Amino acid sequence: MRAGIFHAPGNVSVETVPDPTIEQPTDAIVRVRRATVCGSDLWSYRGVTKWEDGWRTGHEFIGVVEEAGPGVRDLECGDEVVAPFSYCDNTCEFCRAGVQTSCVHAGFWGGNHDDGGQGEFVRVPMADGTLVRVPEPLAGDLSKLAALALITDVVPTGHHAAVRAGVRPGVTAVVVGDGAVGLCAVLGARRLGAERVIAVGHHAGRLEIARDFGADAIVDARDDEAVVARVHEETSGGAQCVLEAVGTQPSMNLAINLARPGGTVGFVGVPHTVGAIDLRQLFSNNVSLAGGVAPARAYIPLLLDELAAGGHDATPVLDMTVPLDRLGDGFVAMDGRTAIKVLLEVSD
Ligand SMILES: [Zn+2]
Fold it and tell me: What is the value of pTM for the model shown?
């Protein structure tokens, strides 16, 4: 099969590798139909996290069950499935508590020992626990594949920001970040009933999508002090709920500065470059910091039901589509910020 391979920072290619096979009775082999490039793929691509030559790329994919091991009970060949960005048994105490990313058997796609999502086939461990079957009327609808691909990671991650920030009916929510996750966080804040959503970013085109996704106000500024002043003015002293979707020191500082006393920051940007948090500031203002890696598996069923019922899909964040073999072009575009998010057409 063809699959994405990391070689060195700035160097990702698609090559022929051995087809995966069933290794454990609970494995399934999924034929990938659509995959996506994630902002978090850029951390290794840019050399911020150390990856080694030969590791498989990608963790966002949807497809069809091609083969199921003898221990797979809930899925059969031909089932259309969505995979969360990590695998899990979905039965252990942490899975039952809704933090499947902390499953005692959890693992992440790609790297040195698992298939990546950016390939033609993926061996899925613990298939019954990991995969979610696509419900009617989405199953069989080719026009929904792009929307389904976003339910593997960015839509549940944006939703998690809203959950962790405590968004509820009546609150004002501020979203920091206008990448794909930030835009999906706007959808998350709306889904949970925020009365008002303010989106903060600095790409006019992306902020327009935020408005389409339900943001009432957008703050387009590169000057963080100006953003704080503007948001404090709009919210009479800060927002109850701040959704942080970037993961850098400046964005985390900004998010904390945008929270009103007693408010909560829900952070879902992978904090690769966050060095220190001013605990004294949190203490003084009773601001809570909550968040973490999204348990996508916990949210996928409800997000599929919403999409099946005609809810707002997130496909406007996909502004570039290429076949799998042009994966490298997708990385270049996202690294250069000429694309928000890249869809890979892998098979029909
Ligand atoms: Zn588990």
Answer: 0.96
